[in-house]
Amino acid sequence: MTNFLPLVEKFHSLQGEGFHTGQSAFFIRLAGCSVGCSWCDTKHSWDKEKYPLIPIKKIIDEIKKARKKGASFLVITGGEPLHHNLDNLCQAINKETSEKDQNPIKIHIETSGVNKMSGNYDWITLSPKRHLPPKTYFLENFNELKIIINDKKDIDFAIDIKQEIMNKYQNLSSKDNFYKLDKKYYVQPAWENARGFSLTIDFVKNNPEWNLSLQTHKYLKIK
């Protein structure tokens, strides 16, 4: 566990993707990623040595300021945030953002699922990559699955990984299966990829159990 984390950036904006699109959120982007997607739009965050180690206390001070300004939840992203042990961070957030008339701020994380879990979250966005599949733990413990689509192989990956998830649940009780229906499934075209956009639209049109996610913050030209 650590009391310092390499921080790329922090900002208060709107969640632009997935289930919570359009909602006020505070983002912290942590440095470090070994997944290495060729189409990644945050390659600047990969090298954790380029960024200063920031005390958790200082990060939480920024979270508290953003909450007072209207951020309804925190999003921890990267890079790959779970390259770091986030137990101390999440414990401190839950303790320090709890006030007399408010519960702790809700914590969301976006992860590819390649590392073991650390920390506690109110919402887990699993964004797995076909060249480095997620650990089995994440196939059950996620709230939304988001697959980035560049080419036909990503469509095939989306179909396969959802089938793997369904296979894991087929022997669960009816109550458990009902809970699993609350999980959300998204495909999202890679930014400025016309082929990926076309594939994504066609796929969602013909597979109604999947939803379309767009990087709306980029279309709106906001942070």
UniProtKB/TrEMBL annotation:
Belongs to the radical SAM superfamily. 7-carboxy-7-deazaguanine synthase family. It is an enzyme of class 4 (lyase). HAMAP family: QueE (MF_00917). The keyword 4Fe-4S applies. Its cofactor is S-adenosyl-L-methionine; [4Fe-4S] cluster; Mg(2+). Substrate binds at L14, Q15, G16, R29, T77. Binds 1 S-adenosyl-L-methionine per subunit. Binds 1 [4Fe-4S] cluster. The cluster is coordinated with 3 cysteines and an exchangeable S-adenosyl-L-methionine. Catalyzes the complex heterocyclic radical-mediated conversion of 6-carboxy-5,6,7,8-tetrahydropterin (CPH4) to 7-carboxy-7-deazaguanine (CDG), a step common to the biosynthetic pathways of all 7-deazapurine-containing compounds. It catalyses: 6-carboxy-5,6,7,8-tetrahydropterin + H(+) = 7-carboxy-7-carbaguanine + NH4(+). S-adenosyl-L-methionine binds at W39, C40, D41, G79, S127, P128, K129. Pathway: Purine metabolism; 7-cyano-7-deazaguanine biosynthesis. The gene is queE. The keyword Translocase does not apply. Gene3D superfamilies: Aldolase class I. This is 7-carboxy-7-deazaguanine synthase. It comes from Prochlorococcus marinus subsp. pastoris (strain CCMP1986 / NIES-2087 / MED4). It holds the Pfam family Radical_SAM. Residues 20-223 form the Radical SAM core domain. Keywords: 4Fe-4S, Iron, Iron-sulfur, Lyase, Magnesium, Metal-binding, Queuosine biosynthesis, S-adenosyl-L-methionine. Homodimer. It comes from the Bacteria. Mg(2+) binds at T42. InterPro entries: 7-CO-7-deazaguanine_synth-like, Aldolase_TIM, rSAM, rSAM_sf. Its EC number is 4.3.99.3. One of its GO terms (molecular function) is carbon-nitrogen lyase activity. [4Fe-4S] cluster binds at C33, C37, C40. One of its GO terms (biological process) is tRNA queuosine(34) biosynthetic process. The lineage of its organism: Bacteria, Bacillati, Cyanobacteriota, Cyanophyceae, Synechococcales.
